[in-house]
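Researcher: Next entry in the queue.
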Amino acid sequence: MAELTTTPFPLPSPQDGGVDLLVVAAEHSGDQHAARAVRELAALKPGVRVCAVGGPALAAAGAQLLLDLTAHSALGFAAVIKIPFFRRLIGEVVRWIAAHRPKAVCFVDSSGLNLRIAKALFQRGLSAKAGGATKALYFISPQIWASRAGRRFAMAQHLDGLATIFPFEAKCYEDTGLPVTFVGHPFLAPGHVAPVAYDPSGPILRLPGSRKGAVARIFPALLDAYLWYRHDGGNRDAVVLYPSEKILKTLQAAQPPANVHLVRLDEFEGSLPASAVLTSSGTMSMECALAGIPGAIVYRTDPITYTIGRWIVKVPHLGIANIILGEAMYPEYIQGDATPARLAAQLQASLKDRERLLHTRAQAEKLRELLAQPAAGSVGGWLAAQLG
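Model: Structure for this entry, 388 residues:
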């Protein structure tokens, strides 16, 4: 494994004096998806030289890690331009690319940061779109189909290629001229180990999310629903998956009872069995959907954010599985609708309604078919073609 770099700036030079690809992945999930892409790329192009501003997964995949950016991901990137560290980071990444001229840079998710770097590369004349030597590539599209669709025109101006994980996304860019390739969803890629699996005898799963503010609002609703379920005679234990110690403290502040078990996401091997789930609308809801675990989505935020979100977001569902399928695989309980009685009723139906279970399993199979890697190739193959 490459040694992790903790000193932020300046970014170090390539160890062997040259580089083919720079990967920029700011979040833990992006780091993991990018690592798989780098492993696929290396298998197709032995000897490819990869540097990364990312995290430990990219380092383990063989990239030279210039900066562990995932250590800063807890700050969030919505207001990235207002934070001095990230303003400096954008300038330093652009300086590094100007100095070392990789054949391509691949931005992974985290549009608040990555689209700003792409714009800066274009303005400096470094990206291929601006006549430079470096292709500006993007993996995992911003959700322009949900909000701020106008971003697609700036992306088409600044980027040379886009790889998407949802099959319908290519159509969203048809009026821009940006080359878009569907490469399949990372959760269905070879070697991916799902963190959850359906088991009719398993515990009830609680997934409040990975952001502290959201967890503080959503977890009490999930906890109240579980207590209501127990009061009505339910006898299953519950498991809450959490990603970090910071989130653990937020969960503990709600004082869950002994039969609600708090489990760190990376502390068990294989797939955690679950019979039903109440989940936030984040990434883990997709894992549950693909696993065919019946349940419901719960979402709570502050009133101002919710009001603004209803004005900006243009999709009929919050859960991505619901959006892809065009129907409510997971019924959604938002703000005041997320009452203990309603959520407990969803748990009982998920556990006892056989037709509900069969329908959920059928929806999961359809979802897997829609998101499977296409015959045309993987994200690693797409990167290999871009590098030439």
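Model: Residues 196-371 form a domain with the Rossmann fold fold (CATH 3.40.50.2000).
Researcher: Noted, moving on.
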